[in-house]
Design brief:
5 strands, alpha/beta, globular
Length: 335
């Protein structure tokens, strides 16, 4: 039996199942003429916010809905406007992203936004801008965006997709209506993950594998989809064995750091943080004594993340050596 299209990845056409409340709210606003000119889609990465923004853009630009059709809950996917969006050539849609992942959104890219804002709709309806991730705006680009937010033009919708809204200027946040996207519930995410993996709920091994991937991903379904792949699952297993090996003294911090330095730094840090929090939770639930060193290790993880965000000349192996030696000391002090 073919999976329901609403449960499998369909980028840009419809929201994911765990976004139904946010979608219903936006449809009500659009259909009653109360849609704000700027939305800040806020939440952790890999929960599907960009897909949500693309689906909303399709809905607003679709010739069958035009953002006001209360009989339609999604774009038709077949009209000229939808076909132009499929081809990436719709004149009333603008997607702004860094030239490379992890890079900044610079002022040069914002000039296209200024030109877009100054022009009229080519299709005689709405114009939609999506900026992702919004926290990648450098200061010059952020100031340029402020001008557009103050005078966006008629029937113009700006959607800022942000994984770290605290990284945005307060003046930008204050000019947007915030829509939050919390981590997905297992009830809504698991059926989608089954379909995306070609599994079924009756497959107990598959269920356990997918449930573990969702837990490891912090209930971020798109990340869980990656974590369910065998190669990635093996990498996480190996990382966890290294970290526990350092804590028990079976693996030296220097040896573990060499392996860890080959991993994507930010992602591996999230694995480390999850293990640390799990350890703390287990000890609290078991009424075990927590040392000041183990509690202070939270600060070390935070500092490592800040170093990642603040420098482009990071030496991953050196950071891992420091982290793992501190981890070993904290665990020994708590034993």
């Amino acid at each position: 039996m073919e999976a329901d299209l609403a449960t499998i990845p369909a980028p840009g056409l419809r929201p994911y199942p765990w976004q139904s409340q946010q979608w219903a709210k936006l449809l009500r606003l659009a259909q009653t003429g109360k849609l704000p000119h700027a939305l800040l889609l806020s939440g952790e990465s890999e929960t599907g916010k960009l897909n949500f923004a693309q689906a909303m853009a399709r809905y607003m630009l679709c010739r069958q809905t035009l953002g006001v059709n209360d009989n339609a809950s999604e774009a038709c996917g077949e009209c000229r406007s939808c076909l132009l969006l499929n081809a990436g050539s719709h004149p009333d849609f603008l997607l702004l992203q860094p030239e490379e992942p992890g890079k900044q959104l610079r002022i040069a890219l914002m000039r296209s936004l200024n030109d877009f804002s100054a022009s009229r709709s080519h299709q005689g309806g709405w114009r939609v801008v999506v900026i992702e991730p919004a926290e990648a705006l450098n200061i010059s680009a952020a100031n340029a965006l402020l001008k557009t937010l103050e005078e966006p033009g008629e029937q113009t919708l700006l959607m800022l997709v942000s994984h770290r809204p605290g990284g945005l200027l307060p003046t930008i946040r204050s000019r947007c209506q915030v829509m939050s996207f919390p981590p997905a519930s297992a009830e809504l995410a698991m059926p989608w993950l089954y379909a995306a993996n070609g599994s079924s709920a009756s497959d107990k091994k598959g269920e356990a594998r997918i449930a573990l991937a969702l837990e490891r991903a912090g209930k971020r379904p798109l990340r869980a989809l990656r974590y369910g792949e065998q190669k990635m699952a093996d990498s996480i297993d190996h990382f966890e064995s290294l970290v526990e090996g350092v804590a028990s003294g079976e693996v030296s911090p220097l040896q573990a750091a060499e392996d860890c330095s080959r991993l994507e730094f930010n992602e591996a840090l999230t694995w480390f943080a999850r293990l640390h929090v799990q350890r703390l939770r287990t000890q609290v639930e078991g009424n075990e004594r927590l040392s000041a060193g183990l509690l202070a290790f939270n600060d070390r993880l935070t500092q490592a993340t800040q170093r990642l965000l603040s420098t482009s000349n990071l030496n991953p192996q050196l950071v891992w050596e420091e982290l793992l030696m501190d981890w070993k000391r904290a665990r020994l002090a708590n034993s």
